[in-house]
Amino acid sequence: MKYVIIGNGAAAIGAIEGIRSKDSEGEIVLISKENCISYSKPQLYKILNQNDIKTISYRNEEFYNKNNVSTLFGQVLKSIDFKNKLVLLQDDKINYDKLLIATGAKANIPIIKGFEGEIYSFTNLDEALKLKESLVTKDKIVILGGGLIGVKLSEYLQKIGKDVSLIVNSKGVLSSLGDEKISEILNNEIIEKGVKLFLSTKVIGAKKEGKKIEVKMDTSTVTCDAIVSCKGVKPEVSPFEKTELSINIGIKVDDHMRTNIKDVFAAGDVTEVYNKFEDKFCNIPILPNAFNGGYCAGINMAGGEYKLDTWYPMNSLKIFDVQMITMGLLKQSENDEVLSIYEKNKKVYRKLVIRNGKLIGAALLGDIDRAGILNNIIRSNIDVTSIKEDLLNSKINFYSIPRNLREVIVKSYTEGLNDSKL
Amino acid sequence: MKRRIICDEDFCIGCRLCEVHCTVKHSKSGDILLAYKFENEKEPPRMSFEQKDYSCGSIVCMNCKDPLCIKACSMGAIKIEEGTVLIDNEKCVGCWMCIMVCPFGAIKRGEKKAFKCDHCFNEEIPICVLNCPNKALIYEED
């Protein structure tokens, strides 16, 4: 059996571990555009004030040897001949029995009217290093986009002493989470820490004059030395656009990470998986989801049986002093029940979204301890009608769950989650 | 081989001796007085006693068969070594993804790093099990 993996991020690493848990013999070939070992995307910010790439490595070099993976780094994928099972590189062809597409996502770079200079981005190591190099001579930075990358980058640049302006279209940062309170808390936090935050603001043009850039917004104008676009990412599907692969925004996969083509799997930021809470296919470009998707694909590629259990987004992050964990769906519909507590002074906020007696979303800001108990309740589809008040309490612990369920949970995790009847 | 500590809650009397012994075992000095008087803030117990109404017991790492913490870790800092799920303290950056997924709430937040029960992997039998006065804590290998 010959497995070919395209990509070297969390999904690709997950796939290697998934394959090797079932098949220690088969040949694994990993093809990557980037010329380095796997690194952690959520920690990419650290490269701005550290020089060693190893400080953000996701797996070390030994990992590839230990798992007997042949690596082809720095290779540009041209296309795939699905009919003849061939991966076409710039000057090579590689055959496969099972293929995993884990090409990730790339930065959305907007076109700014009147601006011909460089717009930086921050979605991979090359882009990060390029920005880092330019920062030596640049002090005033404009960041476009109030999503995850934009907000974290604002924080980091602020911390290394830059003058940061963050321009956001919507009325709050991280608006895609769908919870106005979270956006409000984070807006305040960001402003308090000294970032100039422009909300409900559109950039209408920019002009370069000498070394300075004048950014025109619909409300006012700001002068800066560099513009960084953090306006989200889009799945890297360009090599497959003219093929029979089923693509919407990302590659559509089922709950086994199979694409519409036999023996071709996809995982990570390049995919769309069916999100039951939203009742639609969603692209979820977050590391834990990517790794799990890859792991699931790997097991199924190696002939195992594994159903994806992380089809809803989950993330843990810290914005300045606000620690937060979000899981599942936070934007409630009309018939959903919402429980929440908010203590403004302590920056503590907890929210639960319950639909038909089941927990479908949770947000914890401030006190995040034992968040996994809630995550497990979401994943396991447990009825929470009798315990919902306890779940909202920050003193939640494993004994907050009724005994009969506790016993099932212990059994299912100690004996293997995916075989469980939960 | 997997090391496993099970708490039979019918026998747990809520004495919290497991926490005391865990704290001492993982302290620098190994001395109960020094550990509690001077080192406790830096070396809290790796496991915790939890309670809700009349149910109580020790929450230790369950050494899951397919550990979610390993898959969620943003740095690849969690590994299984000698049957025990262990966090590499050097690699951990405190992103708390592990806390986000642990179904038992067994992973704790340190100042900048996550920490958890290590099943006293360098001992034949975990210290909490050895010292549980009512034998509520049971040690298993499978």
Automatic annotation (TrEMBL), chain A:
<dbReference type="InterPro" id="IPR023753">
    <property type="entry name" value="FAD/NAD-binding_dom"/>
</dbReference>
<dbReference type="Pfam" id="PF18267">
    <property type="entry name" value="Rubredoxin_C"/>
</dbReference>
<feature type="domain" description="NADH-rubredoxin oxidoreductase C-terminal">
    <location>
        <begin position="313"/>
        <end position="381"/>
    </location>
</feature>
<dbReference type="InterPro" id="IPR050260">
    <property type="entry name" value="FAD-bd_OxRdtase"/>
</dbReference>
<dbReference type="GO" id="GO:0050451">
    <property type="term" value="F:CoA-disulfide reductase (NADPH) activity"/>
</dbReference>
<dbReference type="InterPro" id="IPR041575">
    <property type="entry name" value="Rubredoxin_C"/>
</dbReference>
<dbReference type="Pfam" id="PF07992">
    <property type="entry name" value="Pyr_redox_2"/>
</dbReference>
<keyword id="KW-0285">Flavoprotein</keyword>
<dbReference type="InterPro" id="IPR036188">
    <property type="entry name" value="FAD/NAD-bd_sf"/>
</dbReference>
<feature type="domain" description="FAD/NAD(P)-binding">
    <location>
        <begin position="1"/>
        <end position="274"/>
    </location>
</feature>
<keyword id="KW-0274">FAD</keyword>
<dbReference type="InterPro" id="IPR016156">
    <property type="entry name" value="FAD/NAD-linked_Rdtase_dimer_sf"/>
</dbReference>
<protein>
    <submittedName>
        <fullName>Coenzyme A disulfide reductase</fullName>
        <ecNumber>1.8.1.14</ecNumber>
    </submittedName>
</protein>
<keyword id="KW-0560">Oxidoreductase</keyword>
From TrEMBL, chain B:
<keyword id="KW-0813">Transport</keyword>
<dbReference type="InterPro" id="IPR050954">
    <property type="entry name" value="ET_IronSulfur_Cluster-Binding"/>
</dbReference>
<keyword id="KW-0408">Iron</keyword>
<dbReference type="GO" id="GO:0016491">
    <property type="term" value="F:oxidoreductase activity"/>
</dbReference>
<keyword id="KW-0004">4Fe-4S</keyword>
<protein>
    <submittedName>
        <fullName>Hydrogenase MvhADGHdrABC F420-non-reducing hydrogenase subunit B</fullName>
    </submittedName>
</protein>
<feature type="domain" description="4Fe-4S ferredoxin-type">
    <location>
        <begin position="83"/>
        <end position="112"/>
    </location>
</feature>
<dbReference type="InterPro" id="IPR017900">
    <property type="entry name" value="4Fe4S_Fe_S_CS"/>
</dbReference>
<keyword id="KW-0479">Metal-binding</keyword>
<dbReference type="Pfam" id="PF13247">
    <property type="entry name" value="Fer4_11"/>
</dbReference>
<dbReference type="GO" id="GO:0046872">
    <property type="term" value="F:metal ion binding"/>
</dbReference>
<keyword id="KW-0677">Repeat</keyword>
<dbReference type="InterPro" id="IPR017896">
    <property type="entry name" value="4Fe4S_Fe-S-bd"/>
</dbReference>
<keyword id="KW-0249">Electron transport</keyword>
<keyword id="KW-0411">Iron-sulfur</keyword>
<dbReference type="GO" id="GO:0051539">
    <property type="term" value="F:4 iron, 4 sulfur cluster binding"/>
</dbReference>
<feature type="domain" description="4Fe-4S ferredoxin-type">
    <location>
        <begin position="3"/>
        <end position="32"/>
    </location>
</feature>
